[in-house]
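Appendix B, example 12.
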Amino acid sequence: MIDFLTNILEGVITILLIIFKHQKEGRYRFYILLFQICSANSVLQYTVFSQPMPLFPILAGYCEGFLATYFGIWTHYLIGLQLASMAFQVECLVFCFAIKHQNIARVINYHVVSDDVYWTGVFFFIVTPIIAYLVFHQAGLKREDQMDFVKSRYPEYYDEFSKFSNFAIYEFNLWCLLLAVGASIGSVVCGLAFLVITIDIFRMLKDMQKKVSAASFKMYQSAVTSLLFQFGTSALLLVPLACFVVVIMTNFEDTQVFIEVTLAIGALHPIVNAIVVTLTTSIYREYLFK
């Protein structure tokens, strides 16, 4: 409970700093705020709303959070929502890089793109998590078929699964393949976008230093540094998914404990990200440590 309250407090402080202390940079401010809200939301999903837990050796899981326990929302829906939220969060961070790139580009009039490119990106920004959720929704077994599946494939676990009222079971099918291919393509696209944009930003910063004041240059440099650190901490989001894939492929022993530990590591992302944002953004740092 104390860890949860600490995470929420850190998230709220960061959000308030962005609202009241961030420069009026329009689009960039909006997306960095949206990213922090998504980060705070992931705390709630991990600790309050969903609380997903695996049920190995079967490819299954259950949720014991508030929405599952008191509202009876099916685990499959909650896990799908959490995956879509993670995709949305990564998109927010990539957009922050892209918009910061354009803010710098407009100052030095170099590599400026039209608004048509931006709105095309917004379209995919909105549609991608929705498609990911819908594909994931098709990847699971129907709720009414789950116990028959356990009885026919894993009869030794039938009595144990009978004790759960809210769980989801998955099997490898075409939808799982589509989801894996889509996730791989999305990861490559986001990774390449991050790499290309970052390289170009550092190239432009060298030219920008000659055209703006030292204070303005420091502000832009601080924002880019903060984004780089936030991108680094976003790796914590991928730890549970990566370990989950490793477990499936290697039949790792003590699977249940291993996955629970990785889920706990993933839940640390919001508080780590909030600390990184505060300490790497000069305006926030100076305000808090006055």
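The mean pLDDT is 80. The longest helix spans residues 174-208.
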